[in-house]
Amino acid sequence: MPEHEADTTHSTPAREVGDFLRRRREQIAQRWADEPLFRTVFTVSRDEAVDAGRVIVDALAQVADAQRIEDPDAAGFTGVREQLARMGAARSRAGLSTTQVSSELAALLPPVENLLVADLEQEDSERRRECAIALSVLMGTLRLVTMQTALSENQALIDRQRLQLLEVATPVIKLWDGIVAVPLIGTLDSARSQVVMETLLDAVVDQHARFAILDITGVPTVDSLVAQHLMKTVAAARLMGAECVVSGIRPAIAQTIVHLGLDLGTVKTRASLADALGYCLNELGANIVNAPAEGAVRR
Amino acid sequence: MDTAADVEARLPIRSDMDLAWVRQHVRQAATRVGFGLVDQTKLVTAASELARNTLVHGGGGVLETTRVTAADGTAGLRLTFSDEGPGIPDLERALSDGYTSGDGLGMGLGGSRRLVHDFEVDSTPGAGTTVRVTSWVSRPVRPRGGG
Fold it and tell me: Which Pfam families is this protein grouped with (chain B) (predicted)?
């Protein structure tokens, strides 16, 4: 069966690229070590950069052998994913944009392509073309894997930070026996205001609070949804026997609330946290008097 | 009447996170145009209401911000919210205070109209809604009659 024999001597372009990568592993790693991406990430020694290059060439060869040059989820990439992410992250930290990192990755192709063309000089031009395309597809997939990994790391970081914000920004502070305060900071979306309401109601129970002050000095925008959340929180606290005072309403916010047509008439409000505390103390029957001035006659 | 410069920015409105970004962006743009603190706060609040409408009722959309200059040289900022949602069947009712098709306070659309100088709604039932608002630097908001 001559046809079949011809098929086995002529393996697929992907396999041929895999063979080529293993054959030229050392040269490719050496050339890559001189490229900006490797030179700037592995600054300690050149050997380190060459080592990293070898690992990536091995991974690429494995992917090519498996005939999965277009698949970013190919098993061969698993081992180098972390290293690629580290390299991408290092370049981002150095101030490069995603596009710049991506073009540095693209710059890894020409040195390998030159080696491939030189290697396949004996082959006919059609075969050379096929192998060059296979190689460039494979390198494109490598680029995709690196960018994908970097993006998913960023997403994970953002998710972690969002969770941290939810927790950090809602402390309940005891100001006096029976008086608690919540300084609200930033955007009061539905998730945040749910956390605020829960922590406030818990504090009302724990501290036997009769007064709760919601300070919105740190809330930049009070729109109808924020107002609605505030009113719900106030109503819930009232059901538990605590009176709520909203403080920290800045002049610009006050004017906006009026124009927007929001009716906060059912909510007790004060301009500053100090005013609100004064009001609560007064209602509790605690009188605070200023110390006598210097030189005044002491009794 | 006025000359509009090119669209300065296009922001997607697809999630709660985008709303926060809309507020920040409008605040920065208003500062650059030269709005005072009160006018800035009003415009940002109107943007917050309208962007939420776009998200909740329109199923998401985009905001375009444009710097505009009036014939007398006054600088202003125009915000265009557009969605491809179900549209507003009864505009008159939607603009009245206290009417809501969701579970909000029903102050968003009517309230935003009072926070800006110019307010236009263009809504086609079944095809989407475009709300265009413009505010001008240091020009008092005209008091609107009850209607």
Answer: HATPase_c
pLDDT digits (tens, 9 = 90+) for A132-155: 999 999 999 999 998 888 888 788
Quickly list H helices, A120-221: 125-168, 190-206
| Top-confidence residue, B81 or B94 | B81
Across the interface, which of A191, A223, A228 has its CB nearest the CB of B45?
A223
Residues of chain A with CATH 1.10.490.10: 2-164
- Shortest CB distance from B42 goes to which of A225, A227, A256? A256
B2-136 sits in which CATH class? alpha beta
Q: Give the integer Cα–Cα distance in Å for B94 and A79.
A: 58
Q: Domain segments of chain B: what residues?
A: 2-136
Q: CB within 8 A of A59, min separation 6: which ones?
A: A76, A77, A79, A80
pTM reported for the whole predicted model = 0.67
Name the residue in chain B with its Cα closest to that of A252: B38
CA–CA min distance B23, chain A (Å): 8
Per CB-CB distance under 8 Å, the chain A contacts of B112 are 260
* Eight-state DSSP code of residue B125: T
Domain(s) labelled CATH 3.30.750.24 in chain A stretch across: 173-284
B37 near A CB under 8 A: yes
**Nearest-by-CA chain A residue for B115:** A259
Q: Which residues contact B145 (CB under 8 A, 6 or more apart)?
A: none
CB contact under 8 Å between A221 and B108, yes or no, is no
- Say which CATH topology domain A173-284 has: Transcription Regulator spoIIAA (3.30.750)
Q: Which fold has domain A2-164?
A: Globin-like (1.10.490)
Strand partners of residue A200: none
| Cβ separation A259–B115 shorter than 8 A | yes
The ipTM of this complex is: 0.82
